[in-house]
Amino acid sequence: MILESIFWICIFIVFYSYFGYGIIIYLIVKIKNLLSQNSIFDLSYEPEVTLIVPCFNEAAYIEDKIHNSLALDYPVNKLKLIFISDGSSDETHERIKKYPSVVALHENKRSGKASAMNRAMEFVNTPIVVFCDANTMLNSEAIKELVKHYQDDKVGAVTGEKRIISANKEGASSAGEGIYWKYESLLKQLDSDFYTVVGAAGELMSYRTSLYKVLPTDTLLDDLMQSMEIAIDGYKVIYEKKAWAAETASANVKEELKRKIRISAGAWQSMLRLGKAFNPFHNFKLFFAFISHKVLRWTLAPLSLLVLLIVNVLLASNINTIYAVLLVFQLGFYALAMLGWYFENKRIKVKVLFVPYYFFIMNLCVFLGLFRFLKGKQSVSWERAQRA
After folding, report:
1. Integer Cα distance of 149 and 177 in angstroms
2. Which of 139, 148, 184, 203 has the fewest CB atoms in 10 Å of its CB?
3. Is 206 part of any domain?
4. Residues 23-35 pLDDT 10s
């Protein structure tokens, strides 16, 4: 009886973490939309904006990024560009300096992304600041679509959509990451429509300059911490899908593993620093969304998957037909994941195996990230994952 209870509790946690919360929040948003009117924006609203691009050894494509930034559809006299290349040992800084309309910041010391962001903020004198990664390309309307939301004084941050560029010939990492981000983007939109985004994507993120907080230099997930701190202070973080940043997927699953482990280590660090987000009496809507969308995926859901398999074996050993069938399904899923791993290493593309393989890798990284965090071995000066 106890084992059966544990089994079904684990089933519930996994289902709720990945699907149940999305269903509930979808229904809430539908009801909310029936009772409220859509926001009307003043299209002439064009506040001064600073776009900051942290760079590290991006010489190969930094000029493409500069050209993309200069082509943004926003008044030139109201958009300031800052590229900060602290610690770069290649020609990144020299190539940035070729463009007089770009403020080029550089020092030889490498202290991590959070430190570079804090230093760049010292040069910001505009009411809105936008951050994006050097390896992403923005759509031309991105800045306009982000800043329109700041007409609402309750909005403290606005995040754009992350898009994964993939080709049919690419492997499990590209396909898996692309599918994951399509679903994650849908959940972010629902979070935003419900109340606030919980954990924005650093590929394209904007803030009210007055609300930006100087983060500790050892911060691993600056985008999550900055947006959550603003939400804790009572401001909304909005998701705007018409502003997007496109990048290629990780070159392979090994590179994606490297990135996911770092994110998982950062998730554990962030949870220890976001105490008020765990307090339902401080802000229940934020608490509900944060626990449901993020915390369960970082903690109980991966643990439940492990417990589920062990308990299922014990229950099936009693020759219970239901649990024997469920065990077959579980083992079949993990077999598909292992086949995905095998074919990926052999560079054989079998699309039906991409999703189970990526799902397995994603949850494995939670445990690996926890171990790395506990050992204190996750440096802020991470090695960027290679892209396809």
Report:
1. 28
2. 184
3. yes
4. 999 999 999 988 8
Domain-embedded: residue 240: yes
Q: What predicted TM-score, i.e. pTM, was given to this entire model?
A: 0.90
Check if the beta carbon of residue 177 is closer than 8 Å to that of residue 203: no
Give the CA dihedral 43, 46, 52, 58, nearest 10 degrees: 50
The per-residue pLDDT for 353 is 79
**Model confidence over 43-91: pLDDT tens digits?**
899 999 999 999 999 999 899 999 999 999 999 999 999 999 998 999 9
Q: Any idea what the Cα angle at residue 152 is, between residues 146 and 156, rounded to 5°?
A: 65
Count of structural domains within the chain:
1
The per-residue pLDDT for 319 is: 67
Range of the domain at 62: 49-253
- Is 77 within 8 Å of 101 (Cβ atoms)? no
pLDDT score of 279 more than 90? yes
d(CA 93, CA 82): 12
Asked whether residue 360 is domain-assigned, the answer is no
Q: Provide the CATH number for the domain around residue 75.
A: 3.90.550.10
Residue 16 lies in a domain: no
